[in-house]
Amino acid sequence: MSYLIESPVLGRYSLNFVRNIHNGRSSQPLNINQQVISFTVQKMTTALLKNNTTTIETELSRFKGDHYPARACRDKGLYLQIDGKHNNLPLTYKARYEKYGQNYKPEGVGVSADRKSYELHIGYRLINGLQINSRIQNFYDSYESSNPSKTNASGITLSGPILPHIVKELSGNLDLSFQEMTNRDKTTDSIVKSCSLNLNKPINPKFNTQLGLFYQDSDNKVVGSFDSITKQLNIGTNHPIKWNGFEGSMGPGITIRKITGSSKSTDLNYSLSLNMNKGPHNVGYNIGYNTQDRKTASEDVSTLSNNISYRYTMKKDVFSLNLSSENRNSRSGNDTVSYRGGLSWNHSFDRTIRPGCKVCKEERIKKEKKVKSIEKFVHLDLLQLTLLSDKEEIEEKLK
After folding, report:
1. Paired strand residues for 219
2. Residue 185 neighbours by CB under 8 Å, 6+ apart
3. How confident is the model at residue 397 (pLDDT cuts 50, 70, 90)?
4. What is the rounded CA–CA span in Å between residue 369 and residue 377?
């Protein structure tokens, strides 16, 4: 349950309440009863920094209830983000802080309990259209325990047109990243360096190609641990299609991944995707075949997966159907087949609570004036209008 108040002057405020109750199961035999209440604020302002437009978002939340195996726990969470841009320069920035307690574990929520994080992102667009984004991130996991861990990550991304004076319509992005992970008792101490390059080039109006390269070097400094190097190549195409009023795209792809070092394997993945739209209808289909050739004690595995989706969108309602299957074959003979289906309905309850407020009344007056202007224009004689070439004459005719 959520209650939202939105004002062009004061910003957006919401109060949210979620309750989760379900019976125990074999993997988690305890019954679960959870409650989460949160208060959020979103405000855009130009007063925080000169010549900058800044949006401030924050959420204060409190958890009460059970999580396996603990019972009757209480904890809190905090989210704060400042997102802004310079009004005179192609400069953007974002700073974020998050903190969630050890017992903050509501099910179905994409947050990590017992974690603090700090992030800073800065972006700048060059004259030639190339976008530069840099980031610095610090994560503290299990910070309330006796053995907290720390992750320092940094990186830079270049995206946009590539060599526009040499190759036409070639775009892509290059990402370089560095990550260091340690903990207090030194059982974790590793450095991971990664580099990825993705390119996109249309061959003609009906054929588009993608190329991806990835390299990662994982250096584990703990005695007796294992290092690895991963190399990956992605090749894909995309082709627009039309059928029976539907429009969309279809494209095959292949991924080759090779891992060397202590753990060796070669993976091949073949895929074919289809996505089509017609008015409120959206249909998607994906098929993939993946083979894993392990060079160590792990067994080889091949997997065939299928996924089909359908979505019907109305003004305030969205109906979705998803069906998928997976056929997994292993060299040892431990084969498995799985099926999954889902049906969902989303309804939007958004509405104007105070239609008579001053701001709403001003907007309604503007719309009424616009409608009257359109009505005057519609009632003009079209022949006379085509003969009017002077701006003053047209304005006089509209009076």
Report:
1. 191
2. 147
3. very low
4. 12
Q: What pLDDT shows up at residue 91? A: 94
Whole-structure pTM value:
0.72
- Contact predicate 41/12, CB 8 Å: yes
The strand pairing partners of 194, in sequence order, are: 177, 216
**The pLDDT value given to residue 183:** 92
Res 293 pLDDT > 90 = no
pLDDT at 368: 56
User: CA dist 16 to 9, 260, 265, 290, 316, Å?
Assistant: 22, 49, 47, 42, 20
User: For every residue of 5-37, which 3-state class applies, written as one string?
Assistant: EEECCCEEEEEEEEEEEECCCCCCCCCEEEEEE
114-172 pLDDT tens trace: 999 999 999 999 988 899 999 999 999 998 899 999 999 999 999 999 888 888 888 99
78 vs 374 pLDDT, higher one: 78
CA distance 186 to 351: 55
SS (HEC) of the chain? CEEEEEECCCEEEEEEEEEEEECCCCCCCCCEEEEEEEEEEEEEECCCCCCEEEEEEEEEEEEEEEECCEEEEEEEEEEEEEEEEECCCCEEEEEEEEEECCCCCCCCCCCCCCEEEEEEEEEEECCCCCEEEEEEEEEEECCCCCCCEEEEEEEEEEEEECCCCCCCCCEEEEEEEEEEEEECCCCCEEEEEEEEEEEEEEEECCEEEEEEEEEEEEEECCCCCCCEEEEEEEEEEEEEEEECCEEEEEEEEEEEEEEEECCCEEEEEEEEEEEEEECCEEEEEEEEEEEEEECCCCCCEEEEEEEEEEEEECCCEEEEEEEEEEEEEECCCCCEEEEEEEEEEEECCCCCCCCCCHHHHHHHHHHHHHHHHHHHHHCCCHHHHHHCCCHHHHHHHHC
pLDDT higher than threshold 80 for residue 366: no
Which residue reads 């949210």 in tokens?
A: 16
Dihedrals phi, psi of 27, to nearest 5 degrees: -80, -20
What is the phi/psi pair of residue 179, to 5°?
A: -140, 130
- Mean pLDDT on 305-328: 94
CA count, 13 A, side-chain hemisphere, 250 = 11
Return d(Cα 353, Cα 6) in angstroms, integer: 10
